[in-house]
Write a structure and sequence with these properties.
The protein is α/β, with parallel strands linked by helices. It has one domain: Alpha-Beta Barrel (TIM Barrel), CATH 3.20.20.100. 37% of the residues lie in helices and 17% in strands. The chain contains twelve helices and twelve strands. The strands form three sheets. Strands 3-4-5-8-9-10-11-12 form an eight-stranded parallel beta sheet. Helix 2 crosses helix 3, helix 2 runs parallel beside helix 11 and helix 4 packs across helix 6. The longest helix is centred in the C-terminal third of the chain and has 16 residues. The chain is globular. Bound molecules: NADP nicotinamide-adenine-dinucleotide phosphate (NAP). NADP nicotinamide-adenine-dinucleotide phosphate binds next to strand 8, strand 9, strand 10 and helix 11. This is L-fucose dehydrogenase.
Length: 380
């Protein structure tokens, strides 16, 4: 019998159900890295969400973000990308986040080039769903540099999600995914704007149910949203049973109030964890002349950054290290995932997590009202 897209996923699903008993695909909870931790999962029952089984949490405080490997911000050659992966691995990084969107498949191909030879139990990987790729020789996009060869269309249906997962596995060349995020279903997505609410309804009836089923079948360990605003994540907590949110651009040294006051407490109540995306504000906090993705540099952010830099210099603190440790400090945060372009950045960012930062530095940032008083800061 020929293997069509649909029965390929069906086969995987049957295999994964068996893996719930015998962990052959590396996709059962106990097939994971030794320090993996789990908390009770909440599933819908009579209109409310009741704790029933164990919820997965990424066991690595720092991971590697895959935007730069997709030629985000600048073009990078394959050799440098492979060296960045090797550098991350050698430094000790074992959590990798990517997306079909990052370079229209390029980031997944590059990560997979490195990871496909590794034992799946040795690392954690997340990718995303919501956009399907199709061949287009001439397509260009301002976010992604270099030749793309693919274009994209949105699909948040159950079928679209299954196809996306299958496409990602094939691009990555690995046997299983750990986490799947529903990507960029958010009012800041320029393709959607206010229409994100309509896409959300499709995802609520399609993607969210399909991913919950994949988790129940043991195909994936966890799912959530990967978004740059808090509304869609808050909404998802109302209507579904996510495990983890990739909250990007919302929790950094220079901007963290909404996550801190709204999303984090709501997640804590439900034992949902957070992965922090864009912890370096897309480069600013690592000394780059760039703040996030729209090409703008808001004056209030730049003023805050200048004051922080002065205080960091006075305390002999490396601001990049402070930025990474700050984002990993809250209890609800499972991991922070700086984007990494080179082996050197990988080594530096991993080392940042154990850099000594005096308590007086954090105290001064709070005294000067540069960070929120109630923000958790790293313990020495
Ligand atoms: N909606 C979503 O789901 C979403 C949105 C955004 C991000 N994310 C995830 O979060 C990850 C991180 O976000 P991001 O990559 O956009 O931004 P980021 O982590 O805040 O910043 C990454 C950039 O900072 C620079 N950098 C990193 N380490 C450095 C070092 N040691 N020294 C000097 N410069 C350094 C690099 O700039 P250069 O490239 O210029 O060298 C790198 O590309 C992404 O890769 C992605 O996995 C998800």
């Amino acid at each position: 019998m020929s293997t069509t897209r649909r029965n390929f996923i069906h086969t995987l699903t049957k295999g994964a159900a068996a893996a719930a008993i015998t962990p052959v695909l590396g996709s059962s909870l106990d097939g994971l890295a030794p320090e993996s931790s789990v908390t009770p999962i909440i599933t819908e029952s009579a209109g409310s969400f009741e704790p029933t089984k164990l919820r997965y949490r990424v066991p690595h405080k720092i991971g590697m973000g895959g935007v730069a490997l997709g030629n985000g911000f600048a073009e990078t050659d394959d050799t440098t990308a492979l060296q960045a992966m090797q550098g991350a691995w050698d430094a000790g990084i074992r959590y990798f986040d990517t997306s079909p969107w990052y370079g229209l498949g390029l980031s997944e191909r590059r990560m997979g080039n490195f990871l496909h030879g590794k034992d799946k139990k040795e690392y954690v990987i997340s990718t995303k769903v919501g956009r399907l790729m199709y061949p287009d020789a001439d397509f260009t996009h301002p976010l992604w540099k270099g030749r793309l060869n693919f274009n994209y269309k949105y699909d948040y249906t159950a079928d679209g999600v299954r196809r996306s997962v299958e496409d990602s596995l094939l691009r990555l060349g690995i046997p299983a995914l750990d986490i799947v995020f529903i990507h960029d279903l958010s009012p800041d997505n320029g393709d959607m704007k206010d229409k994100w609410v309509e896409y959300f309804k499709v995802a609520q009836n399609g993607a969210m149910k399909a991913l919950t089923k994949m988790r129940e079948e043991g195909l994936i360990k966890a799912w959530g949203l990967g978004v740059n605003t808090i509304e869609p994540a808050m909404q998802t907590l109302e209507v579904a049973d996510p495990d983890v949110f990739l909250s990007a651009t919302q929790y950094s040294l220079v901007k963290h109030k909404d996550d801190l006051e709204v999303l984090f407490p709501a997640c804590e109540k439900r034992d949902v964890s957070i992965i922090v995306g864009a912890p370096l504000a897309a480069g600013l906090l690592a000394g780059k002349d760039r703040y996030l993705y729209a090409g703008e540099k808001p004056k209030d952010v730049m003023d805050k950054y200048a004051k922080m830099k002065k205080i960091a210099t006075a305390h002999k603190v490396d601001l990049r290290s402070a930025a990474l440790q700050f984002t990993a400090a809250p209890k609800v945060v499972a991991s922070t995932i700086p984007g990494i372009r080179t082996a050197q950045q990988a080594a530096e960012n991993y080392a940042s997590m154990s850099a000594k930062i005096p308590v007086d530095f954090w105290a001064e940032l709070k005294k000067e009202k540069l960070i929120e008083e109630r923000a958790e800061v790293p313990k020495v």
